[in-house]
Amino acid sequence: MNFLLLLLPSLLSALLAILVRPFRSWVSWTNALVSLVAFAAAFNFAGHAVTGTAVSVFGPGEFLRADGLSALLMLLVTGVATLTLFFSPGLGRQTRYDQSQLRRYHIFINLFIASMLLAVAANSVGIMWVAIEATTVFSALIIPLRLTKESVEASWKYILIGSVGIALAFTGTVLSYFDFVALSGRVENAMNWPVLRATAPLLHPEVMRISFVFILVGYGTKAGIAPMHTWKPDAYGESPSSLGALMSSALFAVAIYAILRWKMVVDACVGGHFASNLLLAVGLLSILIGSLSLVLVRNYKRMLAYSSVEHAGLICLGLGLGPLGVFAALLHLVNHTAAKSMMFFLVRGIEAKYLSPLIKDVRGMLRVMPWSGGLFAAGTLALIGLPPFGIFISEFALFRAGFSTQHHWLMGTALALLAVAFVSFISQLNKMLYGPVPVDVSVGEVDGWGWMMPLLIPLSVLVVLGLILPAPLAALLNQIMEIVSK
Amino acid sequence: MDSNLFAQLSALGSSLALLAGIALLWRRSLASYVQAFKWQSLVLAAMFFMVGYFGHDPELYAMGVFFFVLKVIFIPRYLRRLEQRVGAERESQPYVNIATSLIMSGLLVLLAYAVTRPLVAVSRLPTRSALPLAMGLIFVGLLVVVTRRKALTQVVGFLVLENGIALLAMLGTYGIPLIIELGVFLDVLMGFLAMQVFVYNIHGTFESMDVEQLSQLKH
C-alpha cells in the first residue's frame, strides 16, 4: 500500500501531463501538490525503519522492498522532487518556455522521478538497473527543451556516455548472476538483493572482482565519478535548472546507492579491501579533477557541476574507509542533496535576471537580489564545508574516519585539494555578490521573496545538521550501518 | 554428443556475431552498418532458440521472438528511415583509421580472453568456450562508439554493445529472469527512440551528423 503511495503520484502526474493538452498551469500545481503524498510515504518508510519493524516487501516475488537504506534514499528523492515540482517552470511565474515545451517537461520530469523511486524501491538488482537506465532516457529528453547548439551537444553527450556507462553496469550485473547460476543453478529470485547478499560468501571472488569493476565504472558514470564525469558539466550547464537540481542531488544519490548495494555484496564475497581500494582511488581522482576544474570555471552552473564531481569523490572516499567512513558518506550524501538542490533552485532566478550563464556577467547580486544573493552565499559556504552547515560536520567525520584508519597521505592530499576548491569557490562568489550592477539589469527579485520561502527548507536542513544530529536521522543511519556491517 | 554439438553451435554463432561487429570497423557507409547489425541480430535471435532448445528452457523462445521483432525488424527499419531523412553521410574520417581500429579490435578480443578466464574456469556449461567472444563483442561495440564521428554510427555501436551483453547473458546463464529481460528490451527501445530524436536535433541545429562539431561546451 505504502509502495503505491510512493510510486503512483509521479506516474499519475505524468499521465495527467500527457492527457491535458495544451498545457495548463493547474497541471503543474496538481503535480507539485500530489508529490507531497509520495514524500509522506517515504517518511512512513523511514519511520518503519527507525522503529525497527520488519522490512516491508510488496508484490509478486517480493518485487519491491524497503529497508533503512532504501528509506533514506526515498526521503532524499521525494524531498528534492517535491521542491523541484514547486520550482518548475509553468506554475504561473514568468518563463522562457512555451506550452508544448512545458507539457514535455512535465511528462518527462515525472517519469524521471518515478524511475528514480523504482530504482531505490526495487528488490532485484536487475530491476534497479532497468530503472536507472530509464532515468538516463527521461532526463536526457528534458535537456534540449529549448533547441540550441549547446543544449543539443550536451544532451547527446549525456545520453551516449550515460547509456554506454550503464550498459557496462549491466554487464557487471550479468556476470555476478552468471556466478550465482554456476553455483546453484537458475533461481527465479536470484537477483533479489537479500538472496544475493546471503549467497555472496559462496560466490567466486575472481568473478565478483571483474563484476564489481564493471559495476563501479557503470554506476560511477551515472554518479559522475572521475574519469567518467565528462558529461556532467555539459548536462548540468545546459539543462533547465530545476532538472539540474534533480540530477545533481537525487539522481546522484541513486547512483551512489547502487554502488553501495553492490559493494556490500562484493565485500561479503571478496573481503573488505578490494572494493574499498578501488573506491579510494576513484574518489581521490574525482576530488583532484573537481577541485582543479573549479579554478578554471567560467560558468556558474558548470561550477556547481565540478563541485558535484568533488563531492562525489568525497563520498567515494567515505565508502572506502570502513564503517565510520560509510556513516560519514551517508551523512554527506544527505547534506550534499540539501545544499546542491538549493543552489540549483537559486540559479533559476539568477539566470532569469542576468540572462547569462557566465560568472563574469553576474555582478552585484547582493544589491540586485538580496534574498537570492544571501542564500547563494550561504549555499556556497555550505558547499565548501564551513560551519555552521552540515557539510562541515560530515567532512569532519569523513576525515576522522580516514585518519583513524591510517590513510594519512590520502586524507592529507584530499584536504589540500579541498583547500584549492575553497579558494576558487570564494573568489568566484566574491565576483558574483559584489561589484557594479550591470546597466541593463533591474533591481529586485525575479519572483518576489515569497517564492524564496521553500528554499528555507534545505537551508534549515543544512543548519540543523551542522549543529546537531537529530535522533530520528541518527537512528535511521544506525539502522543502515547494521545492514552494511551485517 | 548433444552437448558437443551445442558447444560447437554456440561458438559458431558467437564468432559470426563478433565478425559482424568487427565489420562495422572496416565499412564506411551507414547502409552497411545497418546491414551488419541486422545480420548480427538475426544470428543472436537464432541463438536464443538454439540455447532454448538445448538448455530445455521455453522462456528463451519468447525472448528470441521479442529480440527478432525489436532488433531484426523494428530498429533496422527505423535506422534506414533516419538515414533517408538526414542524408547518407559516410564515415570518411573516423578518429582512428580503419587499419588501426582493426588491430585494436584484435587486441580487444585478446583482452576479452584474459578478462573472461575466471568465468570460463568457473562455468560447467557447454557454452562456456564462447564467453570470451561475447565479451569481445562488448569491447568492439565500445570501440565503435569511442572512435567513430557520425552520430548514427555511434548509435549502431551502442546497439552492438547491447547485443554483446545479451549474448553474454544468454551463453553464461541461459537468459536472465524474464521480467528483467523485458525491462531491458523496453530500455533499449526507449533509449534508441530518444537517440533518434537527438540525431534529428543534431542534424537540424548543426546541419550535419558529425559529432566533431559538438565542441561548443568548454569550461
Question: What does this protein structure show overall?
Answer:
- The complex is a heterodimer of chains A (486) and B (219).
- Chain A has 486 residues and is mainly α.
- Chain A folds into three domains: 1-123; 150-271, no CATH class; 286-486, no CATH class.
- Helix content of chain A is 76%, strand content 1%.
- A two-stranded antiparallel ribbon of chain A has the order 1-2.
- In chain A, a hairpin with a 5-residue loop joins strand 1 (56-58) and strand 2 (64-66).
- In chain A, helix 1 (2-19) packs antiparallel against helix 4, helix 7 (193-199) packs parallel to helix 10 (241-270) and helix 8 packs antiparallel against helix 10 (241-270).
- The radius of gyration of chain A is 21 Å and the shape is globular.
- By secondary structure, chain B is an all-alpha fold.
- Chain B has one domain (2-212).
- Chain B contains eight helices and no strands.
- Chain B has helices at 2-26, 30-54, 59-86, 98-115, 117-122, 131-147, 151-173, 178-206.
Q: What's the number of extended β-strand segments of chain B?
A: 0
Approximate strand percentage of chain B: under 5%
What is the share of helical residues of chain B?
over 70%
Low-confidence stretches of chain B: none
The largest beta-sheet of chain A arranges its strands as: 1-2
- Based on secondary structure, the structural category of chain A is mainly alpha
What is the number of domains of chain A?
Answer: 3
Regarding quaternary structure, what we see is heterodimer
Integer count of domains of chain B: 1
Q: What is the tally of helical segments of chain B?
A: 8
* Low-confidence runs of chain A: none
Can you count the beta strands of chain A? 2
Distance between the termini of chain B: 62 Å
